[in-house]
Specification:
With 425 residues, the chain is α/β, with parallel strands linked by helices. 52% of the residues lie in helices and 10% in strands. It is built from 15 helices and nine strands. Bound molecules: fe (ii) ion.
Length: 425
Amino acid sequence: MTASNATAFEKLQFTGNRLLMRGMKLALGILPLREPKLLVGISAQNQLADIIAERSLQKVLIVTTAGIIRRGQADELIRALEMRGITPVIYDGISPDPTFAIVNEGLDLLKRENCDGVVAFGGGSAMDAAKVMAVAATNRRAPEKLVGILKGLRKPLPFYAVPTTAGTGSETTVASVISQDESHAKSFVVDHRSLALAAALDPRLMEGLGPDLTAATGMDALTHAIEAWISTISTPETDRYALEAIQLILEHLPRACENGSDLEAREAMAIASYKAGRAFTQSLLGYVHAISHQLGAYYGIPHGLGNAIVLPKVLAFSQGAARSRLAKLAIETGLGEPAAGETALAQMFVDHIIALNRRLGIPATVAELQDEDIPGIAKGALHEALLNYPVPRHMGRRDCERLIKSLAGEPEVEEYPEVELIQAA
Ligand SMILES: [Fe+2]
């Protein structure tokens, strides 16, 4: 582990981070983390209704968006539940970056209707908000009081997930991100018991996603897998999930973006997103997420898009410390042969990510970035990373500000080398 341009105080903080992450690895190893029952394919929603019926639930709250209801996307699940004697109650007030006010609104409906289960039907926002509703319903605590780790004493209501995007992996993670009502600062609610009992991945639900959203959410999943892969607390199990996710995404994300109706590619992306979620739930994330969260807070840059733009920069920064890990990715994804040597292989992988971004139409820069915001963005990102992420190479303030500065400019200013895309094995 190396750190350049770091002050003595920052080096002390890095040591603290390494100790904290060692403790985190121990804690995560001890926690019994079950896996949701995974249902994949066009019959997944019916299978999910069977599983909910087996639990003898009477009334479930479906947490979703008004758009999903308007487009009739949830009709199949609603019918399947009704046919099995389960009453669906619809809460369709979810919007991007859900606030505690939204969680409270859904929770009020859940209580009024005496629901005994919760089904999230949507992207990460619906799943995150629904998880917190399920935890708050059984614990006499306001959702705002659940911020932190394991703040609810009682087991949450049975929770199920039907993702309609392939990216967040929230159907298999134990953390929810909820925004404060006024400041819109992000708060984390972490409870391993809020993990979905079952997740239904139906590729037809993702058919209507446009190429931009498909690309951004897919790059979010790729970032989860790569940050989990280069994490210093990765395990053989998380490595397996991360590698499988990376292989699936490199092969199928361009396909899903170029032809939204390619159900094989959609299904592969849904599985990849799930696997990446499994990987980062235990191996955690890194600087890409830390910086991207700040870009979201400052400029409203969508999470996946921010990750995609920042990912090559952080990989370039981390390349020295993560060289063998990145080289292995190049070999495992068919980009190069071991004879090329680790340094060249690691570079091949980073170049491949840059080429993938270009192919997906993702800019290399953040046009909104203002010079005067850079110190604040760096401060926020470093704070998040120091407390939460096991990174292979630490960043001091000067390193971080320089990296963020390199994101400035109009998209066409930066010239990246043309790299031929190679299909992953
Ligand atoms: Fe993410």
